From TrEMBL:
Ranges where the record places region Disordered: 502-535
Keywords, alphabetical: Coiled coil
Comp. bias regions, Basic and acidic residues: 505-516, 524-535
InterPro entries: Nucleotide-bd_a/b_plait_sf (IPR012677), RBD_domain_sf (IPR035979)
Protein name, UniProt field: RRM domain-containing protein
Species annotation: Ditylum brightwellii
Ranges in a coiled coil: 366-393, 464-498
Amino acid sequence: MTSPAHGHKRSQLGYFHDDDSEIRKRHRWENYPEYSSHSSTINNDSIEDYQRSVSVSNLFYNCSNDEVSSFLLRVMNAVGILHCSRDSQHHEGPIEYIHQLKGERRTVKFRDCRDAEAALCLNGIPFLGRQIFVTRHIKWNGPENSRRPLEDWAYKIHRKSVAKNEMIQEKSNKNFPSPHSSNVVVVKCFNPEEFKFLSTCIATAMHQIGLVHMGDKPIIDVRLWHINDIEKMAFLEFRTAEDARNAFLLQKLPFYDSFLRFERKLGWKGDSSLDRHQDWSESIKSFFHGHKEDSLEALDNRRQTANDEIKKRDEYEAALNEKSKYLMALENTIKDKDSKIDFLCTKIESQSNEVYRLQDMELSQRNTIDSLREELEKNKSEHEKDLSKISQLEKDAKTSAIQRDKLRATIDEKSKQSEYLEDCIKRQDSQISSMQQKEVELMEVKEGYSRGGRNELNFLWKEVETKRSELEEKSNRIKELESQNNKHTERIMKLMDMLLTNERQNQEGGRKEKNECINLAGSDTDKKARIKQEN
């Protein structure tokens, strides 16, 4: 039983029918991009090689790479195959083999990508007794809907109609038909051990080249005939005589390690001109091309297009070489620029470190400037205070000068008063001395006089007492003036201290005044001392 291709489902009878919805989703393989190359091997890193490569699976074990290549070239009429190699990689996908045997896989690389697209149409074709499967390369990264073409082998079989040239009614006979029956064909050259797969292989081949309808079973009976121990043949009874005649188009059909040969049974007397003997490869080729185009002309055209593609490829490779040189130059310039950038980066780092250091220094300087500003503001405030003190002191000096002038005036007045008092004291002293003399005189008069002179003495005594009281009052007045003078001296001393401080601050202009004040104070004290001595 064969495995369905993409876009086909298995019917209840075990054959194929198409899914139109899936077919409509896919595109035709003629519209795919085209590539060509001179390479003789598959490059695992080249996407273009995957476009021109296909994977052929379920092959017979003993088949060689040359047999696969020649079969594809003969069937497809391709321009050429560059390489065919055994594929040992594991490929995923639903692959079902005809004889429940694991077949081999080949990777085929074509010269033209259109041949690779056309090779996908061979999916399901029989080759050497097996139904081979043709798919894209496993590393092909194109769209999923283009992994299989629109018209693969099974789809062509479904669309092709069977020509009905002549129908011969089948005789109803339970026994095997006679040699004269047109429905019997003899098959030779096969291994008897694979006899059970013979009818399935022939029926599949007839299906796949459009000799019978999809779902029909052309073979109704098969028997093995032993000629001798070595040579054996098989009798195949077909459903119709047309199917039997069409079986002769399968001459040299590959079946395991041999090629089948179809003959008529001995004693057959039918029309042999109706039996179209043709090799299996030619039948596949004619079916593949559909009898619609001249193979040689198509081959020339495809070779010409392949040469054009090769020229384009050469031009493209030359452009790629120029681009690679340009890219190498760009890489060198980029490396130089990278080195310059590294140098600049190191320089920038050093400069940034220097900038950071300068910023730190600037911050420290700013801090010191701020501290100096604070100190300057403090000094300004202190200076303003000092200026205010100086202005106050100047004002005080002015007031002290005024007071000094006043004090000088008062001192002058006091000196005048003291002189006046001295004069008064002298007069009083003179008066006292005169009074004492008078007292003495009075005493003498008193003693000399008697009682008759008492009234006159009393009068004189009263006069003396009045004079004494006046003297006491004057003495009290003198004491008050001395106290006032002492207060004035103390005030003068304070003012002298203030003048000393002013003289220290001004350092000039006050020394003479201070000396004068000291001299005045000294004269006052001398006067006081003399007044005290006199008192």
